[in-house]
Design brief:
The complex is a heterodimer of chains A (379) and B (292).
Chain A: H1 5-14, E1 22-25, H2 28-38, E2 42-46, E3 59-62, H3 65-75, E4 79-80, E5 83-84, E6 88-92, E7 98-107, E8 112-118, H4 125-131, E9 136-140, H5 149-159, H6 166-182, E10 185-195, E11 201-203, E12 207-210, H7 219-222, H8 232-239, E13 243-246, E14 251-255, H9 258-270, E15 277-280, H10 287-298, E16 305-312, H11 317-331, E17 337-343, H12 346-356, E18 361-364, H13 367-378
Parallel strand pairs in A: 14-16, 16-17, 17-18
Antiparallel strand pairs in A: 1-6, 2-3, 2-6, 4-5, 7-8, 7-10, 8-9, 10-11, 10-12, 13-15
Helix pairs in contact in A: 2-3, 5-6, 10-11, 11-12
Chain B: E1 11-14, H1 19-31, E2 35-39, E3 47-48, E4 51-54, H2 57-64, E5 68-71, H3 75-87, E6 92-95, H4 102-112, E7 118-120, E8 126-129, E9 133-136, E10 145-152, H5 155-167, E11 172-177, H6 188-197, E12 203-209, H7 214-225, E13 230-235, H8 259-268, E14 272-274, H9 277-288
Helix pairs in contact in B: 3-4, 5-9, 6-7, 7-8
The chains are: A alpha+beta (379), B alpha/beta (292).
Chain lengths: 379, 292
């Protein structure tokens, strides 16, 4: 779960990471009030989970109330690379002496947290890596002993941080590590990490990703939702406990098990089709789950044909067939379905489907055959 | 021969009294797995269809000589249960539980590598050595004994590929699900190393997916240390970046972890990569010769 900048900064404050004062706002009026409370100049920042906000005109400096009003009006409702801006963050403007980069990331390869620091902040990490790979310093932290002072010192010295701020930068890395561990984050990134003209070290941006599996430990975070990032079909699927990812094609896909569904998308693409979604109905799916899943798939009006690819292990093919029959009774779909049932109770499932004589439902026995058929039907 | 589980397995199940735990424990026993005990704190002294239940792993090990644990408890209790099994001296811990927090997995992993217990999973279907033992939820009816070692990050995809191989007459030495989480206890490399040393295994099939770099690391390892033929399949060529595709670990981050990069890395180290599950079985026929 990706947090918005201001939500990330709330976590930063909680763990003692210095950030400029600021307030979120969802209307122009709120934004102007926030600016007046904070005192000018302020920066008005679009709250969306995508980079390049500044270039897109989503970050503006306001020197007085008129400018704040003008900018808030322009930014609220703006579209930034497909994301609508529903909220702005009004933040006290900072004086900038230097811009650094700091992050704590989850290194899957080493299976350890990794702390990163660079003097080249304010630009994309990939750009820094390209220009000067030596500029990005990183080290692994043993999760059993945690972040030590020496980690911060070493990174700061190696990155060539100005001597007067070695200690505050090291301390900030330690606090970012606290955010990473205590909030169950899988990414904590600060870009830029700011050194102000009066030599204070503050986090000017915050990019925090929280592990969705750990939300039971963080009820406050579980409640945060970002409307701009949520697709209506994805939200509908989530409410029904289905794993669904919206794609941009016209072949609706349902399968059981994440790997098999990914493989199904690939096979459909190989057959010349374009998948409309990823939908994992899960292991042991019962009929109701299947009916509900069909509803979600068909709520995307680009879908021209639907493929069911089931390999029954724990999932029973007869349950899948019952779910599909029930879906036809409730929804009366007007697109063709191709159904491939293999594994546990597959014969029983195919028999049920044959007896139900559903209009426009085609059964196939192999995954490849089913993919070719559905692509033909969607064309 | 086979790897990890066989007739010497003495299985103890954490979460044996839960609905899913009971169901799969009994299925494993019906298959012939030697299930010696279970653990549910507070239910010590009870039994599940004749299988004694203990309050602690330590008691289960002392009383029943368990050497393998299967973890079937809910995600918030799973790390604790794995660490308890390790502390009680269990050699092999198979964690089926899906949804364990990533930071819990980090602590468990970094603790276990300092000791001698091996963890397989979490978020995995378990381990099946056909004809010998089944520890987990793999539907055993589709698989028979043979010489193909199969290791996979995904459950149902394993069944799909295993079944395609079975239809061409191939059986399996062992099938190992390493799971779809970002911090698996055992990697492709750990399992491929065991298959390389297993005399029964003549072909190793690895089934990977997008996210992380475990396949790339395995490719490097295979190039240097594996003499047996290895055949691979990678799922997720059409997955968009930044989206988690069902498994917590299945996510393309920027340009990292794509299926294309994984396939390329494997092929550059002499591993043949099937483009779909059927093609995997066709290549297996080319390598081992036709069976049916």
């Amino acid at each position: 779960m990706d947090l918005l900048e201001y939500q990330g900064k709330q976590l930063f404050r909680r763990h003692g990471v210095p950030v400029p004062d600021g307030q979120p706002a969802t209307s122009v009026k709120e934004a102007v009030e926030a600016a007046e409370n904070l005192g000018f100049p302020v920066v008005i920042k679009a709250q969306v989970q995508i980079g390049g906000r500044g270039k897109a005109g989503g970050i503006k400096l306001a020197k007085d109330a008129d400018e704040a009003e003008q900018h808030a009006e322009a930014i609220l409702g703006m579209d930034i690379r497909g994301f609508t801006v529903y909220e702005v963050y009004v933040e006290k403007a900072s004086s900038i002496a230097e811009e650094y980069y700091a992050a704590i990331v989850f290194d899957r390869s080493a299976k350890k947290p990794m702390a990163m620091l660079s003097r080249m902040g304010g630009m994309e990490v990939e750009e820094v890596a390209e220009r000067d790979p030596e500029a990005m310093r990183m080290l692994h932290v043993d999760p059993l002993t945690g972040f030590q002072d020496f980690h911060g010192r070493r990174l700061a010295f190696e990155a060539g941080i100005a001597e007067d701020i070695i200690r505050p930068v090291g301390a900030m890395l330690g606090r970012l590590y606290d955010v990473f561990v205590r909030e169950d984050a899988t990414l904590v990134e600060v870009n830029p990490l700011l050194v102000t003209e009066d030599r204070k070290v503050v986090a000017l941006d915050a990019k925090v990703t929280i592990d969705g599996n750990a939300l039971f430990r963080h009820p406050d975070l579980a409640e945060l939702r970002d409307l701009s990032a949520e697709d209506p079909q994805e939200r509908m699927a989530e409410e029904r406990g289905l794993t669904y990812v919206k794609l941009d094609g016209n072949v609706g896909i349902l399968g059981n098990g994440a790997g098999l569904v990914m493989s199904t998308l690939d096979v459909v693409a190989q057959a010349g089709g374009r998948p409309a979604n990823f939908l994992d109905a899960g292991g042991g799916s019962k009929a109701e789950a299947i009916t509900s899943a069909v509803d979600v798939i068909l709520s995307d009006d680009k879908v021209r044909a639907v493929l069911f690819n089931i390999f029954g292990g724990i999932t029973r093919c007869d349950e899948v067939a019952k779910g599909l029959i029930e879906a036809f009774r409730q929804i009366e779909p007007d697109v063709p379905f191709v159904v491939r049932l293999d594994g546990t109770n597959d014969e029983e499932g195919r028999r049920l489907l044959a007896e139900a004589k559903l209009p426009n439902v085609h059964t196939e026995t192999t995954m490849l055959g089913a993919a070719e058929r559905v692509v033909e039907l969607a064309a | 021969m086979s790897i990890l589980v066989d007739k010497d397995t003495r299985l103890c199940v954490a979460g044996i009294t839960g609905r899913e735990g009971t169901f799969h424990t009994l299925r494993n026993r019906d298959y012939g797995t030697n299930v010696v005990s279970g653990v549910t704190p507070g239910k010590g002294g009870q039994d599940v269809e004749g299988i004694p239940v203990f309050d602690t792993f330590h008691a289960a090990v002392a009383e029943t000589g368990a050497n393998t644990a299967m973890i079937f408890v809910p995600p918030r209790f799973a790390a604790d249960s794995i660490l308890e099994a390790e502390d009680a001296g269990i050699e092999l811990i198979v964690a089926i539980t899906e949804g364990i927090p990533a930071h819990d997995e980090l602590l468990v992993y970094n603790h276990l590598i300092r000791g001698r217990s091996r963890l397989v999973g979490p978020n995995c279907p378990g381990i099946l050595s056909p004809g010998k033992a089944n520890v987990g939820i793999i539907p055993a009816q589709f698989f028979k004994e043979g010489n193909v070692g199969l290791v996979s990050r995904s459950g149902t995809l394993t069944y799909q590929i295993g079944n395609e191989l079975a239809q061409r007459g191939f059986g399996n030495s062992t099938i190992v699900g390493i799971g779809g989480d970002p911090v698996p206890g055992s990697s492709f490399i750990d399992i491929i190393e065991l298959f390389e040393a297993d005399p029964e295994t003549k072909l190793i099939v690895m089934c990977g997916e997008i996210g992380g770099s475990a396949e790339e690391e395995a490719a490097e390892f295979i190039g240097r240390h594996v003499s047996k033929p290895v055949l691979a399949y990678i799922a997720g060529f059409t997955a968009p970046p930044g989206k988690t595709m069902g498994h917590a670990g299945a996510i393309v981050s920027g340009s990292l972890g794509t299926a294309a990069a994984k396939a390329e890395a494997l092929e550059s180290h002499g591993v043949r990569v099937g483009r779909n599950p059927t093609q995997v079985s066709e290549i297996a026929v080319e390598i081992l010769g036709a069976r049916v």
